[in-house]
Here is the input.
Amino acid sequence: MRSRLARWFVTLPPTLFLWVFFVAPGVIIALASLRYPGEYGGLAPLVADGRVQLTLETYQFFFSDFIYTWIFLKSFAFAFVTTLACVVLAYPLAWKIVHARRRHRDLMLLLAILPFASNFLIRVYAWMIILGPQAMPSVLVNTFLGWLGHEPVSLLYSSFAVLVGMVYVHLPFMILPLYTNLERHDPVLLDAARDLGATPWQSFWRITWPLSLPGVLAGSVLVFIPVLGVFAIPEILGGTGDILIGNLIKEQFLATRDWPFGSALSMLLTGAVLVVAWVGARAARRLGGRYA
Amino acid sequence: MRKTWLTLAALGVYAFLYLPLVVVVVYSFNDSRLNAEWVGFTLAWYRTLFDDADMLLAARNSVLIALVSSLAASVLGTLAGIAMHRYRLRVLPVLAIAPVAMPEVLLGVALLLFFNLIVRPWLGLELGLWSVIVAHITFSLGFVAIIVRVSLMGLDPSLFEAARDLGATPGQTFRYVTWPLIRPAVFAGALMAFALSIDDFVITFFTAGVGVTTLPLEIYSMIRIAVTPEVNAVSTLMMALTLSLIVIASRMSRGALAALR
Here is the structure.
């Protein structure tokens, strides 16, 4: 009796809170995607002319114009390139930390994730300064382009700037899982490979890389999913053409006030996220079976 | 040969990580309206900052929201962590992690709709500080729960059995056995929730009512409308604040950072 009471006491408050403020909003947005938009924004009345007004029109609208599918595809492309760049940057760093002297290791790891603790907007804003027209990178690139007889370009307000911002913001999500994975590799394996005459390159591709795939995968899912929904980075660093799903959703709720369409876009993004998570989990299971 | 190449690559990545933040800090002391050339040292931007009434109000709101939401999130998150550790629960672990695992914009717009379609018409409450606080609890609860759960997993189960065998009620077991042992994890979780709340932009952006502003929202509008080095000054101060929170948190619980891996 008492233990039942204790169980309710610890389980009920957080569960109830999350049902009300997480599950219910999820249900609401799913339903809102099936409603008609209101005349002045928001939603049209649910019951009108004596019948319930539900529709799949918003979803049909999404597929009727290729531009929306294109924006989804573009977001996937940005997420993919960002993930790839994160692997390339995080790998040498994680490797170096794992193979550093034991007493340096914690400090090096802390230094690698510390920038992550600063505010997201500050980290994006910093690139506005660095990629700005008077800063060194722009001057260097444009001097070089000048020699080639090319028009000067703007590094800021471009897809390139958006990618840099995305990589910078999400890099720690790759460093941590990769580090955790590399740390568990048995150093004896590399010694054995060397004794058997493998070049460093060979032992990397035949031993380290395959063993690190679960870490790379975990990091990729952690980077890919949040990047899919980003809207502030393209807004701050991107040009007028750099519109991603996140921007589209934000516009529907705050500018156009087409709530049903915004809800439908959110549902589609949720679906995309679930697919990515599912593919990641499946791949992880297969890797686990092979390298456990 | 390969070693030096790797070292250079790793150093390059460290530079990539720190250069932007160093630039922001350095320019916050630069005596020029433009973030371009180094003119001279000044504290003028900090003075502008402390004379900026909007910014001070935003700072006050940020701290208020972070205090209330981290307090509530630590209570609910601690309960959730204990529940997840003690009982075989299927739903609660998913519910606690899901808000963090999905793109922030989704939670933001879902709560925006919920507050506007349910809470506002039914309870007559306009969006304001309370809606931001509720939203922040929703996403920081899970972090506290994970930290508490990990710390519980590291404890010897015989401690609780001994308490029970000696006739302690569940309440007494918690009061005299569980709580003293998990207290560092709960404090670390609370600090984590505080830091997450004070830093949050995306979810605050969607759930703050008209006229409610926080530091990140203020920074966002400054970046979008008119960039002055005042942004650098407020950024530098916020970095200093987060850094000191991390130092305190890691002093309190060495396991807390490890738990987040």
